[in-house]
């Protein structure tokens, strides 16, 4: 190993240290920005070191340099655009697309390495086995993440898409992975084995995610993120690059832990999520004037009176808040109440929204003080002392029917909103959430339904409360 190669090796190790440190700092919102900056700096240094090594080796052609530079510029431009322009409501789709790009890139690395080998037949299992695994995991992640993004965007139905023989196919395809992997390891020069493995993996990514309902999307996003990390780690083994292995395993392990936490928050096993069939997707909005007789409808003034004279208010945000982009209106209302002496907090369910941590990031954008955000286990004991629990667009995570056996969300940990002294739900209609079942909270005698768009409703509440406290 010459001096440059040796120096680049140590630079990669330093970049890996940055990844570990950055991930550690992301454990807390106060240090998350610094952790993200350190991780990004480590990646930038690793990319620069790679370019330096390629230039030193002198093996790249003019065309290769054009492709390298063009790819870097296009990727940087798209990343900058996404960071600045993509709305918080579309962040889950963006994460899914990132997963697809990561998995697809890792799979292409393995395919290219096998195709460009001087003597593919002479490749040992040390290269061909991780290469085959990289292809399988990366291709599954690529196609599966695209389907997940389509479901989140509404291009693909959020309801489970199950066709005759789908589950049998989802058993047969993984078995074919095993056969294809063995074939490719034994015959690394077989184009049939290589392209067949790619095709089968791409197909499985589609058939795996299609039957999964919208209710499981937070789990699916975390799972595919773990897949991306595994694919990157396998690519590191193929290229014999320590930094890729470390970065991939960090993503894989953290994504795996997050997947388990998300599944536990829904009282579902990861296997049940992959089997699919849970959740119908958003139901079509019903006409706002057609609420059932047992539902008590309230106005902005009714709710404002309760909020203005309350001692403690708990806000319960859900995806409806994100869809209406009403986080700033909620933050303004909360600040108004806080200035009036009302104790304010936010109850955050682990799977509220469509992505792990979606509500935390959304509220952080509105400069909501982090100490006011409370996780489910912390806030549930506080609901009985709350004068008002204001639910904004949250559905399944507040449904008391989860405490009863024999339904789609039985056993799922929920926010104990119904234990507050008074409950107000801001919702456009009586439509179902992703689980596709009625919410018993809405017919509770202590619940008032404020039928309106979250952004408009919160603005009206702020104006009405201002009149009372002004």
From TrEMBL:
Reaction catalysed by this enzyme: NAD(+) + NADPH + H(+)(in) = NADH + NADP(+) + H(+)(out)
Protein name: NAD(P) transhydrogenase subunit beta
Cell membrane keyword on record: yes
Record carries keyword Transmembrane helix: yes
Location of this chain's protein in the cell: Cell inner membrane
Membrane-topology annotation of the record: Multi-pass membrane protein
Family: Belongs to the PNT beta subunit family.
Residue stretches spanning the membrane: 6-25, 37-56, 62-82, 94-115, 135-156, 168-186, 192-212, 219-238
């Amino acid at each position: 190993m010459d001096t440059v190669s040796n120096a680049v090796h140590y630079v990669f190790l330093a970049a890996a240290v940055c990844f570990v440190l950055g991930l550690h700092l992301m454990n807390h919102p106060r240090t998350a920005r610094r952790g993200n900056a350190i991780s990004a700096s480590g990646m930038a240094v690793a990319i620069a070191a790679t370019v330096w090594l390629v230039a030193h080796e002198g093996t790249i052609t003019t065309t290769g340099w054009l492709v390298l530079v063009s790819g870097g510029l296009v990727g940087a431009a798209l990343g900058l655009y996404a960071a600045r322009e993509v709305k918080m409501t579309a962040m889950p789709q963006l994460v899914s697309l990132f997963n697809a790009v990561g998995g697809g890139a890792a799979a292409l690395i393995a395919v290219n390495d096998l195709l460009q080998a001087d003597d593919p037949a002479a490749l040992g299992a040390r290269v061909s086995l991780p290469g085959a695994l990289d292809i399988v995991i990366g291709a599954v992640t690529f196609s599966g993440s695209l389907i997940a993004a389509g479901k989140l965007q509404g291009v693909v139905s959020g309801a489970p898409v199950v066709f005759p023989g789908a589950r049998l196919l989802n058993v047969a395809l993984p078995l074919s992975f095993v056969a294809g992997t063995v074939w490719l390891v034994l015959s690394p020069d077989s184009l049939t084995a290589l392209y067949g493995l790619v095709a089968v993996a791409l197909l499985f990514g589609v058939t795996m995610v299609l039957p999964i309902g919208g209710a499981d999307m937070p789990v699916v996003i975390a799972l595919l993120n773990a897949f991306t990390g595994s694919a990157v780690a396998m690519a590191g083994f193929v290229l014999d690059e320590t930094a890729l292995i470390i970065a991939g395993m960090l993503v894989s392990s953290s994504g795996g832990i997050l997947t388990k936490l998300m599944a536990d928050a829904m009282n579902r096993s990861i296997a049940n999520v992959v089997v699919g069939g849970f959740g119908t997707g958003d139901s079509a909005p019903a006409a706002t004037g057609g609420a059932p007789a047992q539902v008590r409808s309230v106005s902005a003034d009714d709710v404002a009176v309760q909020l203005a004279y309350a001692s403690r208010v708990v806000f319960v945000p859900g995806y409806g808040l994100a869809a209406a982009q009403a986080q700033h209106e909620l933050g303004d209302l909360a600040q108004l109440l806080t200035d009036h002496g009302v104790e304010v907090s936010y109850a955050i369910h682990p799977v509220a929204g469509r992505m792990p941590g979606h509500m935390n990031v959304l509220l952080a954008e509105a400069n909501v003080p982090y100490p006011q955000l409370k996780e489910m286990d912390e806030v549930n004991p506080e609901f009985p002392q709350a004068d008002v629990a204001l639910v904004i667009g949250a559905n399944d995570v507040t449904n008391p029917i989860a405490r009863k056996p024999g339904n789609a969300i039985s056993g799922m940990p929920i926010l104990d909103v119904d234990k507050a002294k008074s409950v107000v739900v801001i919702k456009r209609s009586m439509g179902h959430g992703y689980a596709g079942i009625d919410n018993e909270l809405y017919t509770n005698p202590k619940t008032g339904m404020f039928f309106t768009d979250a952004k408009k409703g919160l603005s009206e509440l702020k104006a009405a409360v201002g009149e009372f406290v002004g």
